[in-house]
Amino acid sequence: MSQKILLDKINVPGIKTYEVYRQNGGYASVEKALKTLTPDELVEEVKTSGLRGRGGAGFPAGMKWSFIDKKSGKPRHLVCNADESEPGTFKDRYLMEFIPHLLIEGMITSSYALGANLSYIYIRGEYMWVYKILERAINEAKAAGFLGKNILGSGYDLELYVHCGAGAYICGEETALIESLEGKRGNPRIKPPFPAISGLWSNPTVVNNVETIAAVPWIVNNSGAEYAKIGIGRSTGTKLISASGHVKNPGVYEIELGLSVYEFMNSDEYLGGMSSDRPLKAFVPGGSSVPVLPAHLIYKTAAGEDRLMSYESLSDGGFATGSMLGSGGFIVYNDTSCIVRNTWNFSRFYHHESCGQCSPCREGTGWMEKVLHRIENGHGREEDIDLLLSIQSKIEGNTICPLGDAAAWPVAAAIRHFRDEFEYHIRFPEKIKNRDHFVAEPFEKVKHLVSKEMI
Amino acid sequence: MKVTIDGQSIEVEPGTTILQAARMIGGEVVPPAMCYYSKLKGSGGKCRCCLVEVAKGSEADPRPMPKLMASCVTGCMDGMEVNSKSSERVTEARKSVTEFLLINHPLDCPVCDQAGECDLQNLSFEHGKSESRFIEEKRTFEPENIGPNIQLHMNRCILCYRCVMVADQLTDDRVHGVMDRGDHSNISTCISKAIDNEFSGNMIDVCPVGALTDKTFRFKSRVWFSKPYTAHRDCPTCSGKTTVWMFGDEIQRVTGRKDEYHEVDEFICNGCRFDHKEIADWTIEGPRAFEKDSVINQNKYNRKLQKVEIATEDHILLGREEDRKKISMAEIPLTEEDIINQKSLGNNG
Amino acid sequence: MERTYHKQEINMTEALITRINELISHYPEDKRKSALLPVLHEVQDAHENWLSIELMDKVAEILLIKPIEVYEVVSFYTMYNQKPIGKYMFEFCQTSPCCLNGAENLMDYTCEKLGINLGETTEDGNFTVVGVECLGACGYAPMMQLGDFYKEHLNEEKIDQLIADCKDNKIVLHDK
Lengths: 455, 349, 176
Description:
- Chain B is about 25% helix and about 15% strand.
- Chain B has helices at about 20-25, 90-105, 120-125, 160-170, 200-205, 270-275, 310-330, 335-349; strands at about 1-5, 10, 50-55, 70, 80-85, 150, 175-180, 185-190, 210-215, 225-230, 240-245, 250-255, 285.
- In chain B, strands 2-1-5-3-4 form a five-stranded mixed sheet, with helices on both faces. In chain B, strands 12-11-10-13 form a four-stranded antiparallel sheet.
- Chain C folds into two domains: about 15-75, Arc Repressor Mutant, subunit A, CATH 1.10.10; about 90-165, Glutaredoxin (3-Layer(aba) Sandwich), CATH 3.40.30.
- Chain C is built from seven helices and four strands; from the N terminus they run ααααβααβββα.
- Chain C has helices at about 15-25, 35-45, 55-65, 65-75, 95-100, 105-115, 155-165; strands at about 90-95, 125-130, 145, 150.
- The relative contact order of chain C is 0.12.
- Classes of the chains: A alpha/beta, B alpha+beta, C alpha+beta.
- The interface between B and C is medium-sized, with 21 and 12 residues.
- Chain A: NDH-1 shuttles electrons from NADH, via FMN and iron-sulfur (Fe-S) centers, to quinones in the respiratory chain.
């Protein structure tokens, strides 16, 4: 049973409300921080904790905080990124829906550390009912004196508001999020300048994921050093994992980083194994944009070591044999699923979500989707596989923001590990006409057709 | 600050971008730019044509930058070393961007008024392939009428955002913008409104492709058939400094005066551009110089006309000779050389 | 791109104006434009879930910005509808994790049951069925968004029930 620090009280009845949350030790970190710590000491605690950004990139949070420009004298802002839209990821929604005050407590403590007096939670528009939950929770916190002027008599002022998006994955990119918060189209900005220097309304701004901010109260209450003891190596603390696909118990789990993938997949405390007797075929460990891994690379790395749920172990072997922890969107596929169809589906997603600002992403994502759609529908050509690899390599690294990479990686990984499945689609178009083509006849059973052709 | 691009060093002021430094050096090191426009604030960074490799970040931090950088929005650092044309990676990236910009482009140059002064044509001449790998259906847009002066051809647009910036920065009431998103993004007024602001015609000059063209010049002539002259007039609205494009005694078109990077020196008003097409309206200063490779320069006033020889005549005669051999002298056995010649003729046919 | 014009009855009620002013107060005084997205949500909810040109112009007027700035934003985000849609819009998530659990077949079922194709509205104007991208409910698939809420762990029986509930006016669309 691993330690829980975010969801430990999730089952307390009424924890959604301020009273119950407060009775269970809520808002203690605000009291401790405002009364006994300076903002700089707080930043140091978070640095010591080794907490890394939980949105996907895994950048050390304390370091990000220390970049904020305090010299210019401009107002500073903390913006919480609750625009959770990465396919396979639904952990932030769970946290905000069931324990909203944890996020608000984290926002207050973190805003204090950054010297921000006006902060926002940017939530995706589709989570409208969660938006209302947060609005109510903010009102409760304000009524209790944890928001507004002169909080707890400390002289520190903070206003906190929720801002809702309206359907755009790209707004999860921090500069696009800021543009959207300013009432504009979600076009990512050219960096530099980074938000820490010029962000919201050109003011110094820090953008952090929901889960990152929600970890701050525990760090303040228990010290950064204690937090750093949880987890493994540079992957400190706990992580929320959203599990979906063909598993017995899909849902959101808090794990200690360093748990083995095998245990997470199979123990009854977590996913409880596969949803049916169909065997495991592939998995995506960190949301749709990270590389998919085939069955033989899931529990063991290429070097033969146990694969762990940590930033380092999941990326062991680089893109050749590894993947990434990303946002913790854990998608599991059994042998009825089609990798080509799945790759086309993800490509359609990125095509749909590209903002259209820079040419490689705008044109390339649409091109990849069209080629993949052809292959999946029996109109593929032998040369399309290399064409896809070429297109994705031309997008990768050449775009303004990481959406280009996110669109390119899954395509490359799918071909890298499942090339024969693409060849099968191209050579036997009559066999893949039905969308559920691998349900009755899994690829393993027909694989020999492609290998024969290759001789 | 010293910055070195493809081995050529130059001293620049802090705040200079790599692209600006490259333009100061001039020549082949200058990266192509489809969206950057020095006179429009906030432009650049979008088309990714000007990507360069930063091999050395600066004297203080010599690490190379891992990704290619958009030179138009990346500032120079003291001691920075940049590879532009000299880098294979950069050439490859520019080829990629060119391919991306062309896959959905209609390639309708034969009927496009921009042909001959089109940055996308130049880019594909330099970095394009002769064949397309794109076999899918091209994206198209419904046409929209944006008024009597400006023709919008959305299918040709590369979304540089320059025209939006012109409207934002030169006029006080922008009525057009970028609608929708992704590869369906399009320039539109949304309500088919006429764009009639006094400076809106500059959208045509800043457009790097044929997406925005001059309706008063539409299909009148290929640009290389008209002769550009530097001209001016007393204008109450703008500087009145223009280029007039003449065919015989007729002024076919009026534009801003463009430099070697196809940027206008000064923006001009719609009055000068659309409403003054009489010779009496203008004081003509003299022929306007263009870069030597421009089609606009070919066979113009600064080059002597030479006799044109049509090479095909020789080929036709040769072909007749071959035919004569085959038809009228069939009884004479063909030599091996004859057979090879015939085959190669057949292949070429 | 030329757009089809649709007419809409505009009704800026007092309650709506009050809520808009509250939203505007969440941002510094000179940053009214920042309220654009939340304000558009409120205005759309109060106007049968779509935004006409006139309505967008009204929002521009309230936020002291140019109409084009509103059009640009509305067309960028998928949640704003620029033409009339069904009273009940079934927005099925069609991204991979949902498809692993049969979202595509369920969408076919729903469309067939309502006698429409994906993206269409029933003749009585009651139902629209669309496929949308990941809604962040991958573990509870298949699912759809209906108004402000998610309907999760769907199957054919639940779809039948939902359609019946909609017809009986038993469905709450907005949390106001």
